[in-house]
Structure formats: C-alpha cells, structure tokens
Design a protein that fits this description.
It is elongated and about 85 Å long. The protein contains 5 helices and 8 strands. With 216 residues, the chain is of the alpha+beta class. The strands form 2 sheets. Strands 1, 6, 7 and 8 form a 4-stranded antiparallel beta sheet that branches. Strands 3-4-2-5 form a 4-stranded antiparallel beta sheet. 36% of the residues lie in helices and 38% in strands.
Length: 216
C-alpha cells in the first residue's frame, strides 16, 4: 500500500509537471519584390461590317506588338489568349463586335512597370483597352524563404514565452508542439487583400506560428 501510494503520488506529480506549458504565437514578416508580371490586354472593335471590325482588331494587334517590341520585350513574351465575336441588331441594323486578348508574361519587373506607365500610348494609337486590362505582379519564390521565416517566427514565439515565464517565475523549456500558420502574400502598402494587392510588385509575406513550450 505504501509503495502503491508513492507510485500514484509520483505519477500525479509528473502529470502536473507535464501541464506546465505556455502556448504563444510568433510572427514573421518580410518585404519582397515580385518576380513575375502578367498582363492580359483585352481590346475590341465594333462595326456594321464584320470584315471591317476584324480588320480594326488586326490593326490593333499589330500596334500592341509594336508597342511591346519598342520597349524591348521579346516576341515570345506576348501570346494570344482568346478571341470572340458577338452581334446585336437594332432597328434592322446588325453591329458586330470582335474582341481579342493578348497576354504578356515576363520576369523583367522593371520593364513591365515601364510598360504600364506608358499604356496610354496604346490608346493614342487608337487601341480601345477594355476594363480589366491591367498588370498583375506575383511573387513565386515563397519556398525559398519559408524555412528562414518559420525559424524567425519560432524565435519570436520563444521571446514571448520567455516573458510569460519570467512573470510566473519559471523558465522556458523545449517545444512541446507547434503549428505552422498560413503564409499570406499581400501588397506591401495599403490594406492587405484589398486594392493594390496584385497591381504592385512590392509585397509583404507574413506567417504566424503557434508554439506550445514546456515550462521548467
């Protein structure tokens, strides 16, 4: 009975010690620059004669190709991504609308920014740019910085745990368990996830980890 009581008491003590832990969150943020720029350019032409509308779109396509060539983009950077024809009849007159889409894809971010800054040159050449024609910047090298950011977030979490431990007169022990949060990539400036998230090459990568530390 004495031995059994000792073992039971020792087990309760160890169980109580196992409960001595603190759960904190660690944050890591990093400013990065996008390494991929994509621009889908949508344009159209309307006429009562289908051939005339098609001819205008062909002329606009040549103007767009010349615009990007003049900025130093290789021919392969610009690819057609779709076209369609629609029509409507009003008072017996049929009007045809021909729409064309070209897509620019490049890793030359500086050149892409220059192209966007001069996009109204296309308008001055008679190209009607439809709504939704805008540059989108993407950061694709997240896996390259993930390990360092997780380590930084964990270090940040340990600092928070240390503060809690000091307030309770304890020490921070090893990690009991941890959960890696979701990596988010938003615009560096402005509200994350809102306006400006994709139309700026300057991004902020953010991750929050949840770490449970044993207390000594």
């Amino acid at each position: 009975m004495v031995a059994g009581g000792y073992l039971l008491g020792d087990g309760l003590l160890r169980a109580k010690e196992a409960e001595r832990s603190v759960t904190v969150r660690g944050l890591a943020e990093r400013d990065v620059t996008a390494d991929l720029a994509t621009w889908t350019i949508s344009y159209s032409a309307s006429a009562t004669d289908l051939g005339e509308a098609q001819g205008k779109v062909r002329s606009d396509t040549q103007a767009i190709e010349a615009f990007f060539a003049g900025l130093g983009f290789p021919e392969s950077a610009l690819q057609p991504t779709g076209a369609n024809v629609s029509s409507y009849t009003n008072r017996g007159v049929t009007t045809y609308t021909v729409r064309q889409r070209l897509s620019l894809r490049t890793n030359d971010i500086a050149r892409a920014q220059k192209a966007v800054a001069r996009q109204f040159d296309l308008v001055s050449r008679g190209v009607f740019l439809e709504e939704g024609s805008g540059m989108s910047y993407t950061f694709t090298r997240l896996n390259d910085i993930k390990p360092e950011m997780v380590a930084e977030a964990t270090k940040n979490a340990r600092a928070s745990a240390q503060q809690f431990a000091e307030d309770s007169g304890a020490g921070v022990g090893p990690i009991k368990d941890a959960t890696q949060g979701y990596f988010s990539i938003d615009a560096r400036d402005g509200v994350g996830g809102g306006w400006g998230k994709s139309d700026s090459p300057y991004k902020k990568v953010r991750v929050v980890t949840t770490v449970n530390f044993n207390l000594d």
